[in-house]
Amino acid sequence: MLDGAEVAKHSSRRSCWIVINDKVYDVTSFVPEHPGGSTILLKQAGADASTEYAKYHSPEVVNDLPPGSYLGDIDTSTLDRLNTPKGLSRDEVQNATAQSDEGQVPHVTLCVRASDFEAAAKATLPNKSWIYASSSANSGQSFQGNIDDWSRVTFRPRVLRNVEEVEVGTRILGNASRLPFYCSPMGSMGSIHPDGEIEMTRAIVQTGMHGLMSTSSSKTTEQIMETYLTEQERRSSTGGTASKLMFQLYLPTDHQRSLELIRRVKKAGCFHSLWLTIDTPVLGKRTADRYQQAQEALNAGLAEEDISPAAEQEVASQGGAPPKVSKDIGGRPPPGQLSARTTWEDLAWIRREWGDRPIVLKGIQTADDARLALQHGVQGILLSNHGGRQMHAAPSALMTLLEIRTYAPEVLGKLEVYVDGGLRDGADVLKALCLGATAVGVGRPFLYALAAYGRRGVERCVDGE
């Protein structure tokens, strides 16, 4: 058992201890490698980081810290001796999840369009969470292109047709869906809503929608599975359409961890298909995240820590190596994710591990790669530029769909083709379907609805009533 006062002493880059769920970890060696930037850890040095950790990571992610990081349990009677996170007062820590004072959240019935939930979420979320949810790569060109491109396609109405009854359902990888859209995967939902993926899963099942869960979920696979099964049983008792959960896979850098992850997802039993994310070999430059991290470092007095010549000389005089400076690259995937070595050849062993369940490639952005996907025997492709969060000037899913129609039309007849990014109303969905898409993914509108109103907001966003 470790005393809080002892933990509090280790509060710098040279010796950084943190407490997560009453366990003490020495994360000194991991500080410069943290995907979300060193400031996030240094702010919590010598403090209880449990609340902040739970927003972005599932409980087992701490197991991926370097060997020897776990030091022991903390004596819970000494928690008051820990440090306060740098840059925050005690009152600010207690109110860290309080709503912003920028505006009042309107009643959910006043959200008539999917885009209405964005303002409600901004008025609800702390600034850091809002930036995480809304940020995009560089100047936002790809993000804005996703939205703007849908307006470049117009309808040619034909009249005097019998449209009294319209069927909008579809089939997604062999499964009936009452809706022509599904819930896109979104990581770290704990930063948006305390129950994060649990609440979203409830909404997915109760609306009869299909949905994707992310490797970067803030809840465990087992928690999501239990929620899914409970809600599915409740909905089936009322005769509702069954929903299917699908899994968005980020391949870890370590091959053995990749195998273990796929096996764990397969064993869970609730995930119908595997959607391999192929557009993120490295994290994109998410400008708003970087500004936020720089401001946090300044507020916490960490901007210059350990990077001055004097600091380097001091460490060298003690026989140590110069401190490594973290590259704060934005985004918050668990450590060890984002393999930059994945190639088309890797699909062979992924298929062996996953078995005969469907595989979809998420992140196709050219007709050439769509054709390669067909040749490699996957069941579907998702045309996506990661919500504009990766490349500065990536094509929108709509432009990629039109490219495929022109240069690789055979793909549309042999693969299920999905699109996401920038779809904000039913007209956008209909345009995608008319141009050959099987169904479309919707992400941020549901995330914003969850932030402002929880499950009820997502249900409102799906059905509008």
TrEMBL record:
Pfam families xrefs: Cyt-b5, FMN_dh
Region described as Disordered: 81-102, 310-339
Matches recorded under Gene3D superfamilies: Aldolase class I (3.20.20.70), Cytochrome b5-like heme/steroid binding domain (3.10.120.10)
Ranges where the FMN hydroxy acid dehydrogenase domain occurs: 106-465
Keywords: Heme, Iron, Metal-binding, Oxidoreductase
Entry-linked PROSITE patterns: CYTOCHROME_B5_1, CYTOCHROME_B5_2, FMN_HYDROXY_ACID_DH_1, FMN_HYDROXY_ACID_DH_2
Cofactor: FMN
Superkingdom per UniProt: Eukaryota
Domain Cytochrome b5 heme-binding: 1-75
Single annotated GO MF: oxidoreductase activity
Protein family according to the UniProt entry: Belongs to the cytochrome b5 family.
Descriptive protein name: Cytochrome b2, mitochondrial
